[in-house]
Amino acid sequence: MKKILLFLVMLTSFSMSMNAQEVFNSIKSKASEVVNDPLANPIVKKISQFKLDALDYLVIKMKEQMPDSTVTFLDKEALAMNNFITLYTQSILDNRSQPGAYQVKIIKLFMDASYSNPLFKDSDTELVLVYYNNGESLTRFSLDTDWRRAYIAAATELKKIK
Question: Which among 34, 65, 75, 139 could disulfide-bond with 48, CB atoms 3.0 to 4.6 Å apart, if both were Cys?
Fold first, then answer.
């Protein structure tokens, strides 16, 4: 688990120091490398697969609904998604010795932050909630998420329950 956390923290700090145009591509590239690495930790692979799917969804929907949006917008959303997942994994690791009910509360907090902050208000709930509704998924989040707002919501709620 410590390796997972270290990987996510390094990815976040690496992403924050890059030029705006490179952020999206860097996060996507790193996630692709992990997914395609047969020796990668299965947990990290699952998280990376979610990142790839979320970034692909973001690009497709932006082209459909926001054709005039900038690369900077895409990069900000990608970085916020990465930070959201880092905060989530850090919170899970920090609270692993807490009672199960408290851990479930943390997971639901992040699920709610994702679900309650849609970016596109997509009506295709089967697609949008594919991870959210999957009880086996480590990343039970909506693909249709405004990641910047979701990150702020999750961080705010975490402070309240601590």
Answer: 34
